[in-house]
């Protein structure tokens, strides 16, 4: 089995040339879409992409790992009104296993040539980062496990299903007895 550091270094190599950045953490590492990188900053700032997506990767000593998705979205703005300028901000986040796909395509006129064409062609799939981590893990012989948040969500879902079956069953029996 390889070490935690070898896993982290493998993911770092796999992210070269991508918008992902690896940040070491006490539990393992975070794999984040790197919006601060100069290469991607123009895209995010100019086109108001206000989303930061991170995969928290927890590494265990027994060669197992878990991935928690953290999707942060921020909206902000300013509006002039009777009381002067009013600033607003709102933050929304999802944590656990996030299934998300977004694509943005914009057409415009090139300021230099005057030709119409795509000025933005951006897509994001939440599973992209997980796939990257899983590929490195497979090469190194690591095994994925469900983290606590995922196990908790399964328990809640299971209890909900059982409660629905019991309540619908009771309603059905009561209807039959009428």
Shape: extended
The separation of the N and C termini measures 65 Å
Whole-number mean pLDDT = 77
Question: Which structural category fits the helices and strands?
Answer: alpha+beta
* Count of discrete domains: 2
Strand coverage percent? 35-45%
Radius of gyration based on Cα positions: 23 Å
Question: Element order, helices and strands?
Answer: HEEHEEEEEHEH
Number of strands: 8
Tell me what you see in this structure.
It is a single chain. Helices cover 36% and strands 41% of the residues. The strands form 2 sheets. Strands 1, 2, 3, 4, 5 and 8 form a 6-stranded mixed sheet that branches. Strands 6-7 form a two-stranded antiparallel ribbon. Helix 1 crosses helix 3. It folds into 2 domains: 142 residues, no CATH class; 32 residues. With 178 residues, it is of the alpha+beta class. It contains 4 helices and 8 strands, in the order H-E-E-H-E-E-E-E-E-H-E-H. The radius of gyration is 23 Å and the shape is extended.
How would you summarize this macromolecular structure in one to three sentences?
This protein is about 35% helix and about 40% strand. It is an alpha+beta fold and about 180 residues long.
Map the helices and strands.
Blueprint: H1 4-14, E1 20-25, E2 28-33, H2 38-46, E3 51-59, E4 64-81, E5 84-96, E6 101-109, E7 116-125, H3 127-140, E8 143-144, H4 148-177
Helix pairs in contact: 1-3
Based on the model shown, name its key terms:
178 residues, 6-stranded mixed β-sheet, 2 domains, alpha+beta, 8 strands, extended
